[in-house]
Amino acid sequence: MRGLCLAACLVAGPALAAGHDSADVLFLGEVHDNPAHHARQAEIVAEVQPAAIVWEMLTPAQAGQVAPDLVPDEDALGAALGWAESGWPDFFMYYPIFAAAPEAAHYGALVTRQAAGEVMQAGLAATFGAQASAFGLDSPLPEDELQTRLDGQQAAHCNAMPEEMLPVMVEIQRLRDGTLAAAALQAFEETGGPVAVITGNGHARKDWGAPALLARAAPKIRIFALGQGETGRGAPEGGFDVIESAPPVERGDPCAAFN
After folding, report:
1. Do 172 and 1 form a contact (C-beta atoms < 8 A)?
2. Number of domains in the chain
3. Any domain includes 48
4. What span is annotated as the signal peptide, if there is one (predicted)?
5. What is the pTM of this model?
6. What is the predicted pLDDT for the residue at 252?
7. Number of Cβ atoms within 10 Å of the Cβ of 127
8. CATH number of the domain to which 149 belongs
9. How many CA atoms lie within 13 Å of 172's alpha carbon, on the beta-carbon side?
10. DSSP alpha helix (H) spans, the chain
C-alpha cells in the first residue's frame, strides 16, 4: 500500500506537498490520542483558514453548538459539546483546531451507536439513505479488498472478534467513511470551501476511505489527504498525498482487555 503514496511518504516539519493549498477538501488524518498529530492539524487549519471543518468526533447536533462567541473559551466550548462524556481523547488536544479557524462553520459526521446498530438490521445502503448509490455504498466490495478489510478488523480487535461479526464491522467502517464524505460534500456546497476534515487515518486514506467516496460522488472536487504516523511504528497505509511522522505516544497493551 505504501507504493500508493503520491508524495514523499515521510515528511517532517511544516512544509506540505504542493497541492494542499489548492485543494477544495483536505482530509487531515490522525492517531486519535497523539497530541502532536492534533498540533499539526491545527497548524494546517491556521494556514488554510478553511470555510468549514468536518469532525468525525461530533454529531451534527453537537457541531451546531459551536458558535463564534464560544470558540475563544476552551472550557465553555468543551462543556457545550459534552466532550468530557464523549469518550474521545482530552479536549485540550482538539481545541487548538477550533481556535485556529474561529470563523469556520462546523459539521458533524459522527456515526452513533444507534446508526451502527441499524447496519446490522437493515444493511449499509438502507442505513445510509438515498445517497448510498452516489457514494458507492449500495455495492459489495471487490473480493480482495473485502478480505484485506476483514483481516484488518480482526487484527484491530486482537484476533478476538467472532468471525461472523467481521463483515458487519467492515460495513460500519464504510458507513463512517460515507458519512464523512457526505458531510464534506455538504460543507463544500454550502460554504464554497476549502473544507478541512478531522478524522482518523483509517478514514482519511485515499484508496478506499472517505476521500475515495467523495471523489466518486463529486469527481471535480480537488482532494488532499494527510496521513500521520508515529516514529518507529510504521507509516499508515492507504495512498495519502503526504505521510508525516511524529513522536509516538506510550500506551498500554491494547489487547490486555481481550486476555
Report:
1. no
2. 1
3. yes
4. 1-17
5. 0.92
6. 83
7. 23
8. 3.40.50
9. 19
10. 35-48, 60-63, 74-81, 91-100, 113-122, 124-128, 143-156, 166-191, 201-204, 210-217
Residue 172 falls inside a structural domain: yes
C-alpha span between 135 and 216 (Å, rounded): 6
Residue closest to 181 by CA, chosen among 111, 118, 245? 111
DSSP line for 100-144: HSTT-EEEE----HHHHHHHHHH-HHHHH-TTTTTTTTTSPPPHH
Mean pLDDT per 10-residue run, the chain (259 residues)?
36 58 96 97 97 98 96 98 97 98 98 96 97 97 96 92 94 98 98 98 97 98 97 93 95 80
**Distance (Å, whole) CA 236 – CA 203:** 11
Sheet holding 195-198, edge to edge: 105-108, 52-55, 195-198, 25-28, 223-230, 242-246
Q: In the numeric block, which cell numbers belong to residue 153?
A: 478488523
Sequence-distant (6+) residues with CB within 8 A of 235 are: 2, 5, 9, 10, 227, 229, 243, 245
Residue 219 domain boundaries: 2-11+20-247
Question: CA triplet 45, 200, 178: central angle to 5 degrees?
Answer: 100
- Structural contact between residues 206 and 4, judged by C-beta atoms closer than 8 angstroms: yes
Residue 169 maps to a domain: yes
Kindly give, in sequence order, each residue whose CB lies less than 8 Å from that of residue 45, ignoring residues fewer than 6 positions away.
Answer: 28, 53, 97, 100, 101, 104, 196
